[in-house]
Write the C-alpha coordinates for this entry.
Amino acid sequence: DTRLQQGLLALEDSHQAMLDMDGSLRGYLATGDQFFADNAVEAAPRLAAANTMMLNLLDEPRLRQDVLALQLAQQRWSNDWAEQARRLPPPGGVETFLKQGTALFDDYRARKEGTRVDTIAAIEAADRGAVVGQWTIGVLIALVGVVTLVVALRGRTRLQRHVVTPVDGLL
Protein backbone atom coordinates (compact mmCIF):
# COMPACT_ATOMS: atom_id res chain seq x y z
CA ASP A 1 0.00 0.00 0.00
CA THR A 2 1.58 3.26 -1.15
CA ARG A 3 -0.01 5.24 1.68
CA LEU A 4 1.63 3.02 4.30
CA GLN A 5 4.99 3.12 2.54
CA GLN A 6 4.86 6.92 2.34
CA GLY A 7 3.93 7.00 6.01
CA LEU A 8 6.95 4.82 6.84
CA LEU A 9 9.24 7.13 4.87
CA ALA A 10 7.74 10.14 6.67
CA LEU A 11 8.32 8.38 9.99
CA GLU A 12 12.00 7.97 9.12
CA ASP A 13 12.26 11.59 7.89
CA SER A 14 10.65 12.76 11.12
CA HIS A 15 13.12 10.73 13.15
CA GLN A 16 16.06 12.17 11.22
CA ALA A 17 14.80 15.70 11.91
CA MET A 18 14.43 14.83 15.61
CA LEU A 19 18.00 13.49 15.68
CA ASP A 20 19.25 16.66 13.97
CA MET A 21 17.41 18.87 16.44
CA ASP A 22 18.56 16.88 19.47
CA GLY A 23 22.20 16.82 18.35
CA SER A 24 22.17 20.52 17.50
CA LEU A 25 20.62 21.50 20.83
CA ARG A 26 23.12 19.35 22.73
CA GLY A 27 25.91 21.03 20.75
CA TYR A 28 24.47 24.42 21.72
CA LEU A 29 24.30 23.44 25.39
CA ALA A 30 27.88 22.16 25.33
CA THR A 31 29.41 25.12 23.49
CA GLY A 32 26.97 28.02 23.66
CA ASP A 33 27.64 28.49 19.91
CA GLN A 34 24.58 30.00 18.19
CA PHE A 35 25.41 27.95 15.07
CA PHE A 36 24.02 24.85 16.80
CA ALA A 37 20.84 26.59 17.94
CA ASP A 38 20.31 27.82 14.37
CA ASN A 39 20.70 24.26 13.04
CA ALA A 40 18.01 23.10 15.43
CA VAL A 41 15.69 25.86 14.21
CA GLU A 42 16.39 24.83 10.59
CA ALA A 43 15.39 21.22 11.35
CA ALA A 44 11.99 22.25 12.76
CA PRO A 45 10.25 22.76 9.37
CA ARG A 46 11.53 19.36 8.17
CA LEU A 47 10.08 17.79 11.30
CA ALA A 48 6.74 19.52 10.78
CA ALA A 49 6.58 18.48 7.11
CA ALA A 50 7.46 14.86 7.90
CA ASN A 51 4.92 14.75 10.72
CA THR A 52 2.23 16.06 8.37
CA MET A 53 3.04 13.27 5.90
CA MET A 54 3.11 10.74 8.73
CA LEU A 55 -0.52 11.57 9.52
CA ASN A 56 -1.42 9.30 6.56
CA LEU A 57 -0.79 6.45 8.96
CA LEU A 58 -3.79 7.54 11.03
CA ASP A 59 -5.99 6.12 8.26
CA GLU A 60 -4.83 2.66 9.31
CA PRO A 61 -6.84 1.74 12.46
CA ARG A 62 -4.15 -0.53 13.93
CA LEU A 63 -1.57 2.29 13.71
CA ARG A 64 -3.61 5.15 15.20
CA GLN A 65 -2.60 4.56 18.80
CA ASP A 66 1.08 4.20 17.86
CA VAL A 67 1.13 7.38 15.78
CA LEU A 68 -0.72 9.42 18.40
CA ALA A 69 1.59 8.16 21.18
CA LEU A 70 4.60 9.00 19.00
CA GLN A 71 3.29 12.50 18.31
CA LEU A 72 2.68 12.99 22.03
CA ALA A 73 6.22 11.84 22.90
CA GLN A 74 7.63 14.24 20.28
CA GLN A 75 5.55 17.07 21.69
CA ARG A 76 6.67 16.28 25.24
CA TRP A 77 10.34 16.31 24.17
CA SER A 78 9.82 19.55 22.28
CA ASN A 79 7.86 21.39 24.98
CA ASP A 80 9.63 20.06 28.06
CA TRP A 81 13.18 20.04 26.73
CA ALA A 82 13.92 21.40 23.24
CA GLU A 83 12.26 24.79 23.73
CA GLN A 84 14.00 25.28 27.06
CA ALA A 85 17.37 24.12 25.68
CA ARG A 86 17.72 27.39 23.80
CA ARG A 87 18.06 29.23 27.14
CA LEU A 88 21.45 29.31 28.74
CA PRO A 89 22.00 28.26 31.41
CA PRO A 90 19.30 25.59 31.25
CA PRO A 91 16.98 25.09 34.21
CA GLY A 92 18.51 22.83 36.88
CA GLY A 93 22.02 22.88 35.39
CA VAL A 94 23.41 21.41 32.20
CA GLU A 95 24.00 17.84 33.38
CA THR A 96 20.55 17.40 34.92
CA PHE A 97 18.95 19.07 31.94
CA LEU A 98 20.78 16.78 29.48
CA LYS A 99 19.65 13.70 31.44
CA GLN A 100 16.06 14.96 31.30
CA GLY A 101 16.41 15.42 27.54
CA THR A 102 17.87 11.95 27.14
CA ALA A 103 14.99 10.38 29.07
CA LEU A 104 12.40 12.22 26.97
CA PHE A 105 14.21 11.37 23.73
CA ASP A 106 14.53 7.70 24.73
CA ASP A 107 10.76 7.59 25.34
CA TYR A 108 10.20 9.15 21.92
CA ARG A 109 12.67 6.71 20.29
CA ALA A 110 10.92 3.68 21.82
CA ARG A 111 7.56 4.89 20.50
CA LYS A 112 9.10 5.59 17.11
CA GLU A 113 10.50 2.07 16.94
CA GLY A 114 7.15 0.56 17.95
CA THR A 115 5.39 2.62 15.29
CA ARG A 116 7.99 1.56 12.72
CA VAL A 117 7.60 -2.14 13.53
CA ASP A 118 3.79 -1.94 13.41
CA THR A 119 3.87 0.03 10.14
CA ILE A 120 6.12 -2.57 8.53
CA ALA A 121 3.75 -5.29 9.76
CA ALA A 122 0.81 -3.42 8.22
CA ILE A 123 2.70 -3.09 4.91
CA GLU A 124 3.50 -6.81 4.93
CA ALA A 125 -0.14 -7.67 5.70
CA ALA A 126 -1.31 -5.45 2.84
CA ASP A 127 1.23 -7.10 0.54
CA ARG A 128 0.03 -10.56 1.59
CA GLY A 129 -3.55 -9.49 0.88
CA ALA A 130 -2.54 -8.24 -2.56
CA VAL A 131 -0.75 -11.52 -3.34
CA VAL A 132 -3.78 -13.55 -2.27
CA GLY A 133 -5.97 -11.33 -4.46
CA GLN A 134 -3.65 -11.79 -7.43
CA TRP A 135 -3.60 -15.57 -6.98
CA THR A 136 -7.39 -15.62 -6.71
CA ILE A 137 -7.74 -13.64 -9.93
CA GLY A 138 -5.20 -15.92 -11.64
CA VAL A 139 -7.10 -19.03 -10.57
CA LEU A 140 -10.39 -17.52 -11.75
CA ILE A 141 -8.87 -16.63 -15.13
CA ALA A 142 -7.50 -20.17 -15.48
CA LEU A 143 -10.90 -21.58 -14.53
CA VAL A 144 -12.63 -19.41 -17.12
CA GLY A 145 -10.07 -20.59 -19.67
CA VAL A 146 -10.74 -24.26 -18.85
CA VAL A 147 -14.52 -23.75 -19.00
CA THR A 148 -14.16 -21.95 -22.34
CA LEU A 149 -12.04 -24.80 -23.69
CA VAL A 150 -14.58 -27.42 -22.52
CA VAL A 151 -17.46 -25.48 -24.10
CA ALA A 152 -15.50 -25.09 -27.36
CA LEU A 153 -14.67 -28.82 -27.48
CA ARG A 154 -18.28 -29.77 -26.79
CA GLY A 155 -19.40 -27.35 -29.51
CA ARG A 156 -16.90 -28.89 -31.91
CA THR A 157 -18.15 -32.39 -31.11
CA ARG A 158 -21.77 -31.32 -31.70
CA LEU A 159 -20.82 -29.61 -34.92
CA GLN A 160 -19.02 -32.76 -36.05
CA ARG A 161 -21.95 -34.99 -35.16
CA HIS A 162 -24.84 -32.78 -36.36
CA VAL A 163 -23.37 -30.98 -39.37
CA VAL A 164 -20.14 -32.43 -40.72
CA THR A 165 -21.12 -36.15 -40.60
CA PRO A 166 -24.55 -35.66 -42.27
CA VAL A 167 -23.01 -33.43 -44.96
CA ASP A 168 -20.26 -36.00 -45.61
CA GLY A 169 -23.01 -38.64 -45.99
CA LEU A 170 -24.62 -36.58 -48.72
CA LEU A 171 -21.45 -36.34 -50.72
